[in-house]
Structure prediction request, 123 residues.
Amino acid sequence: MKLHASVTTDLMTITAYDSGYIAVNGRHLSKSFLLTPKRLIEDWSPAGFEALAEADFAAIAGIGAPIVLLGTGSRQRFPAPKLLRALIERRIGVEVMDTHAACRTYNILMAEGRDVAAALIIE
Prediction:
């Protein structure tokens, strides 16, 4: 599916996605990553939902965005509460959804000028 950005030329936008990849500003990524409107972090480690660890959520919390969209792969799955501790302790809101829904939601919030981060798992 292709997505088209509005007036977001200087920002990190999800421009397309399909099974096995997400494109950020036209660049295809095939491994899980973290994204904010101004930053792409490609070395986020989880290879899938089952591989999520507390360190992965600490990395998300370290971004400092007040809203996090967690894309959990091909379907919505909720992480164990202990994994979310780093976000809860910093009062960071987290919305859990499948990865493609997180891509769409990220683009909407980013285009509205919101301070948002997306943690996207690609399986």
User: Anything to note?
Assistant: The longest helix spans residues 99-111. Residues 32 and 121 are 4 Å apart (CA to CA). The mean pLDDT is 93. The two ends are 17 Å apart (CA to CA).
